[in-house]
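Practice problem: predict the structure.
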Amino acid sequence: MANIIDGKAISAAIRAEIKQETEIFAKENGFRPGLAVIIVGEDPASQVYVRNKRRACEEVGFYSEAYELPAETTQEELNTLVDKLNANEKIHGILCQLPLPKHLDENEVILRIDPKKDVDAFHPVNVGRIMIGDYSFLPCTPAGVMALLERSGIEISGKECVVVGRSNIVGKPQAMLLLHANGTVTICHSRTKNLAEVCRRADILVAAIGKADFFTGDMVKEGAVVIDVGMNRRADGKLTGDVDFESVAPKASYITPVPGGVGPMTITMLMKNTLTAAKLSVK
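Answer:
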């Protein structure tokens, strides 16, 4: 049976380190790292995320601001708020909760955020820096996956790494980070032929497609490390990942559960990025 990678415990340990670093930073510089979170509309999942981010800021000792805008907010109003936060010296990180209502242009907002305050690492400047391996910030979920692997003592160098999913938020940056760690990386997607066969080659399998229980035991090599980024809700209301835990866990050497695996790491990495942004502001 696989070793369970406990994302809650690893996340708590990293947050404790961030809190300690924040206290030192605040004493040395006379201010605390500041994060602004923008949410537009009434999406319940987004509201939960925003609440969790505010709580995380309190836990690690950050200053935070939350802007809850009505769904009918115009592009101009949103752009004006981003410009104001770009100029605000108390704010070191700006996060605009996605998805936005359909009449708003997400790309325009991403481009508007100062790359030095782009703690989601979505701005093309930061994406480009990740590509060449010279980055200040990493997208929070892939960074969380790397921290889980590192803190579990899992060697990446020389391993066959298969990432299933090619989103700009998870799949693509995840593949680049594994490559920077000297993994041999294959990216799979909806057009990949013989997907199960490719997955069975993986020493490290990262599942990030958003399909409940898609990856089954017959798709996984004996002794593989399985990282489940998926977060889906079954018909009975229970949370599940992209991996069918019951059939995969007996074959894997390490596996992340859902919930309690990758999920807790995402906001923790956002805190880490915000602290980095604050440190860069005084250089």
